[in-house]
Write a structure and sequence with these properties.
416 residues; mainly alpha
């Protein structure tokens, strides 16, 4: 099939529209955050601001527990029952019930940890305000809009609340003591967007999300477990980098690392939604030829984005953050190649392993990546006690993921 035919087919199936709005949602949110980010760092200070991304690591672990990998199987279920109103209501309500229970469990575990660890207890208010954003994970079913190929609505909703948060931040933040307030504003804007999205589902689709019998939950947990294991291992790997940087270098270096991640995050958002937008369509018609074509073009896209980051990260850092943060560009230049590895590994997971129910390989892939990153970091810190060793370890572990996927696919003839 020629490229023009593929493009025409994508337009006919609304994949391009879904991708466009999924990307717009993520990119606009990231850009708004990135625009206000230098101001917040300058007001709060490099050392004090480092506390916030460190807090978000632990909030992210709680978020993974709450989500429990439900998004992928729930998306698949909605795709298969698009026209069945009762089935969609049951799916949404079952996921909501499960997430509510997990939110309560995660809250108990999270705040027990905060009050037992002295370094966390000192900043308990920041932890509490940041943890509130996990309510949006409970309420907001982005996977539903993705499955229904209707990301337009949530794009507008989230954009509105992110824009509203900007003047509030500018008005209320004055010093390092206001970091908790920044965490609260971010969380409340996320919750407001989540509530609005659910209201739209009720009004437009006629679906009322409610609590369901606990008897419906075991099957959902069974389906979500492989994705949860994959997600928590991936999240553990990502968060471990920030924890290690804080332990060995301090909060100021956490801020530098966070700036680098922000620089990478915007172009990465253009690529990460490619697989998400294609997923519903490919699930309906998975062929080896289609998968190989996706991999071919994603290699080109991923490499291009990574090279662009290497070229433009330095001037961006200097202009937006000043020379005091100049070393962040070097970290970003290395982390930029994680876009390539994330995109290609994600294609194998979404379009090879999931359609063929090879969930074991998804989890094993993340375990291999975690072990590789720990080994690379250990060696790096022994040879070169520098924050760059962490960035290099992350990138190398990504290439290990791709190598693992290719070996598994070749050994088991998963792409004929």
């Amino acid at each position: 099939m020629r490229q023009s035919q593929i493009t025409r087919r994508l337009k006919e199936t609304k994949v391009l529209e879904n991708y466009s709005f999924m990307t717009a949602l993520s990119v606009l949110s990231a850009l708004i955050g990135f625009i206000i980010y230098p101001y917040v760092v300058r007001i709060i200070g490099k050392e004090a601001f480092g506390i916030y991304p460190y807090v978000l690591v632990w909030v992210g672990y709680a978020d993974m527990l709450i989500d429990f990998g439900f998004s992928a199987p729930a998306t698949k279920a909605i795709v298969l029952h698009k026209e069945d109103l009762l089935a969609k209501q049951k799916i949404l309500s079952t996921v909501f019930t499960a997430k509510t229970l997990l939110f309560m469990l995660s809250g108990i575990l999270f705040f027990t940890m905060v009050f037992l660890v002295e370094d966390m207890r000192v900043h308990w208010l920041i932890y509490a305000c940041a943890f509130l954003q996990n309510l949006s994970c409970v309420i907001y079913p982005q996977w539903y809009f993705q499955a229904m190929k209707n990301m337009r609505v949530v794009t507008y909703i989230n954009l509105v609340f992110r824009l509203v948060s900007i003047p509030i931040i500018l008005l209320l933040l004055h010093s390092a003591a206001d970091l908790w307030l920044y965490a609260l504003i971010v969380s409340l804007s996320m919750i407001a967007g989540a509530v609005s999205a659910v209201a739209y589902i009720r009004w437009h689709d006629g679906i009322k999300i409610r609590f369901v019998s606990l008897k419906l939950l075991p099957e959902l947990f069974k389906e979500g477990t492989p994705f949860f294991m994959t997600g928590i291992v991936g999240q553990l790997k990502e968060g471990l980098m920030t924890i290690i940087i804080k332990m060995f270098f301090g909060y100021a270096e956490v801020t530098l690392y966070d700036i680098a991640k922000k620089l990478v995050s915007v172009p990465r958002l253009f690529t990460q939604n490619i697989n998400a937008a294609l997923f519903p369509e490919v699930m309906e018609n998975t062929t080896p030829k289609r998968v190989n074509l996706i991999l071919k073009y994603e290699r080109i896209i991923g490499a291009s984005m990574s090279i662009l980051i290497m070229l433009f990260s330095y001037p961006i850092v200097i202009v937006m953050f000043g020379r005091d943060m100049a070393s962040a560009w070097q970290i970003a230049a290395v982390l930029g190649w994680s876009i390539y590895t994330w995109l290609i590994a994600g294609a194998y997971l979404n379009f090879v392993f999931i359609p063929q129910n090879k969930y074991y390989y998804i989890t094993l892939n993340q375990v291999v990546a975690l072990v590789a990153s720990v080994v690379f970091i250990g060696v790096g810190l022994l040879l070169w006690k520098n924050i760059m060793s962490v960035a290099i370890a992350i990138t190398l572990s990504g290439f290990v993921e791709i190598l693992f996927c290719r070996l598994v696919v070749k050994k088991n003839n998963l792409i004929c």
